Amino acid sequence: MVKLPTIYNVHLVAIIATLGGALFGFDISSMSAIVVTEQYLDYFNNPAGVIQGAIGSALAAGSVVGSAIAGPLSDRIGRRDAILFACIFWLIGTSVQVSCKDYGQLIAGRVLNGFTVGITSSQVPVYLAEIAKAEKRGSIVIIQQLAIEFGILIMYFIGYGCGQIPGPASFRTAWGTQFIPCFFLIIGLPFLPRSPRWLAKVGREREAIETLANIQADGNTEDPLVIAEWEEIMTVMRAEKEAGTGWRKFFKNGMWKRTMAGMTVQAWQQLAGANVIVYYLTYIAQMAGLTGNVAMVTSGVQYAVFIIFTGVMWVFIDKTGRRTLLIWGALGMAFCHFVVGGVMGAHHVDVPGGVGNPPNANIVIAVNSGAPANTVIVFSYLLIVVYALTLAPVCWIYAAEVWSLGTRATGMSMAALSNWVFNFALGMFTPPAFINITWKLFIIFGVLCVAASAWFYVFYPETCGKTLEEVELMFSKDGPHPWNTKKGESRLTAEIEAVVNRKTAHDEPETHVAPGSEKV
Fold first, then answer.
1. What span, in angstroms and rounded, lies between the C-alpha atoms of 111 and 115?
2. Residue 15 pLDDT exceeds 90
3. Residue 518: predicted pLDDT
4. Residues 410 and 72 sit within 8 Å (Cβ to Cβ)
5. In whole angstroms, what is the distance from residue 228 CA to residue 234 CA?
6. Cα–Cα distance between 225 and 217 in angstroms, integer?
7. pLDDT value for 516
8. Which of 9, 130, 123, 127 is nearest to 69 (CA)?
9. DSSP codes, 325-386
10. Superfamily assignment of 10-193+249-472 in CATH?
11. Is 355 in contact with 286 (CB distance < 8 Å)?
C-alpha cells in the first residue's frame, strides 16, 4: 500500500483542516443572499415566521446531533478521520438541497449539512489546539474562524450572482457550489498528521512523539521542547487515568469549572446576538430603506468587514488576553445593540403587510430615512467589527483550550453542542421576533451582552500563553481566582530549561524518557 507524504507545517495543516470551517460558512450564507430573492419567495410560497425559522435553524438542528456524537467518534477514530467521516453527510445533504421540491426537503438537506458542521466545528479546533505550540495556539485556531468567514463571504456573493438567474436554477446553482470546499477537504485530509496527543492517548507513543517532533522541532526527538512537552503530556495522562472514566470525570475535582466554562462560552457567543446581523442583515437593510442591489451589496460588505477585522486579530490574538477580549467585546456589542434598538424604536413606521416588492412578511417595520436609517446600518456594521475582534474568534479558542487531554474531544463536542442548541433556538426565535417584537429584539440582546461580560469576569481564568496541560492548574480547586490571572508566564519555559540543564549535567544522552518507550 502506498504511504502518502505527510504535511507537518502547522499553518498549512491548519489551512487544509479549516476547510471544515469553510463548509460552515458556506451553509450559513447559502440562505442569506437567497431568502430575499423573488425566485426563493415564489418557489417556497413566501415562507415567514416559524417556517422561515425552521429553514434557517435546520443547520443548527443537524449540528446539535453532529456535536453530540463528535467527541466519542473523535476519541475512537481520531480527530482527522472524524472530520473525513463528516464530509460524507455534507455530500448527501448538498445533493438533497440542490434537488429539493419543497421546503420540507430543503430543511432535510440543511439538517444533513448541519450534521457535518456539528462534527467539524467541534473537532477542527480540537485538532488545531493539539498540534499548535502554546504561544501560537490562538493564531492557529483563529484560522478556523477566518475560514468560516471566507466561506460566508464567498457563498454570499455566489448567491447574489446566482440571483440574476431566472427561476429555481438560481438557488439550485448556488447551493450546488457547496460541493467544492468539501471536495478539497476530502482530498487534503489524508496528507495531514494525526494529533500527537490523540496518538498518545490510544497508546501509540512512538508515533506520537515522532509526530510531535516533526511538528515542533523538524523531527528532532531529543529537542528540549519536544521532551518537555512530552513529559507534560505523559504526566497529565497518568493523572487522568487515575481520575477514572465515564461522565463523572467532567465534574470531579474541580472539572465542573472547565465543563461550565467550555459550554457557557459557546452559549454566550450565540446569546450575544451577532448572528442576527450575520444571518439577517438583508432584513435590517430593507428596514432601513435599502432595496435591490444596494441592499444586497450593503449586506455582503459586512462579511468582508468580518474577515478584515478577524484578520487583524490573527496578528494580535496571542498578545492579548482571552478574558480582556471577551469582557470588553461583550460590552461593545451591548452598546451597538442598544443604539440599533433605540433608534429603530424611536424612528420607525409600521408596515403590517411587509416591506419590499414583493412584500417580505418577516419585515413589518421601516426605519425613517436619513440619519436614523444610516445610524442603524453603521452600528450594525460596528457590531460586526466588535464581534470579529472579540467573541467570534475567542469563544472558539477558549472552548478548545479549557479541556484536559482525556476530556478534550468529548468536551469540545459538548461545547459545540451548547453553541448549536442556542443557535437552533435563536434561529427559530428570530424571524417571529422580527414580526412580533421588532426593535425590542436588539434591546434583549444588549442586556444579554452585559450579562455575558459579568459572567466572563467572574468565572473565566486567563488561558492565553499556557500549555494545554498547564491549564489544568488554572481550573483546579487550588487555582487562582479568575480575576487574578493574566496571560503568558507559561511554566513550559522553565521545564525546557530543566531539560537542557539535565542534558548538560550528563555526558551521556538523556535517558529519563526514551521517546516512544513509555507506556500509559
1. 6
2. no
3. 43
4. yes
5. 10
6. 8
7. 47
8. 123
9. HHHHHHHHHHHHHHHHHHHHHHSEEE-TT-BTTTTBTT--EEEPTTHHHHHHHHHHHHHHHH
10. MFS general substrate transporter like domains (1.20.1250.20)
11. yes
Cβ partners under 8 Å of residue 81, min gap 6: none
Residue 518 class from Cβ within 10 Å (0-12 exposed, 13-18 middle, 19+ buried)?
middle
Residue 353: CB partners within 8 Å, gap ≥ 6?
A: 359
- Per-residue pLDDT reduced to its tens digit, 223-265: 888 888 888 778 767 766 655 556 677 777 667 888 899 899 9
Q: Averaged over 412-435, what is the pLDDT?
A: 85
Identify the pLDDT of residue 246: 61
Vertex 456 angle, CA 70 and 389, to 5°:
80
Which residues touch 203 (CB under 8 Å, ≥6 apart)? Answer: 519, 520
More reliable by pLDDT, 26 or 318: 26
With CA atoms as reference, report the closest residue to 59 among 24, 111, 135.
111
Please state, in angstroms and as integers, the Cα–Cα distance from residue 440 to each residue in 53, 132, 337, 340, 384, following that order. 18, 43, 10, 10, 19
pTM higher than 0.85 for the full model?
A: no
Between CA 245 and CA 227 the distance in angstroms is 27
Q: Give CA–CA dist 299/285, Å, rounded.
A: 7
The DSSP H or E segment spanning 367 is: strand 365-367
**What is the amino acid identity at position 286?**
Q
The DSSP letter of residue 355 is B
Arithmetic mean of pLDDT over the chain: 83
Question: Quick check: 91 and 37 in contact, CB under 8 A?
Answer: no
> What is the three-class DSSP state of 495?
helix
Cα–Cα distance measured from residue 109 to residue 38, given in angstroms and rounded to the nearest whole number = 21
**Mean pLDDT lowest among 47-51, 162-166, 363-367:** 47-51
DSSP state of 490: -
pLDDT at position 511 is 45
Cα distance between residue 436 and residue 447, in whole Å? 19
Half-sphere exposure of residue 127: CA atoms within 13 angstroms, side-chain side: 33
Nearest-angstrom CA–CA distance, 196 and 208: 4
Q: Are 216 and 134 in contact (CB under 8 A)?
A: no
| Assigned C-alpha cell, 510 | 538523556
130-157: buried (b, 16+ CB within 10 Å) or exposed (e) per residue? bbbbbbebbbbbbbbbbbbbbbbbbbbb
Distances (CA, A) of 250 to 233, 243, 376: 19, 10, 43
Three-class SS of 175-203: HHCCHHHHHHHHHHHHHCCCCHHHHHHCC
Nearest alpha-carbon partner for 90 in 29, 17, 20, 153? 20
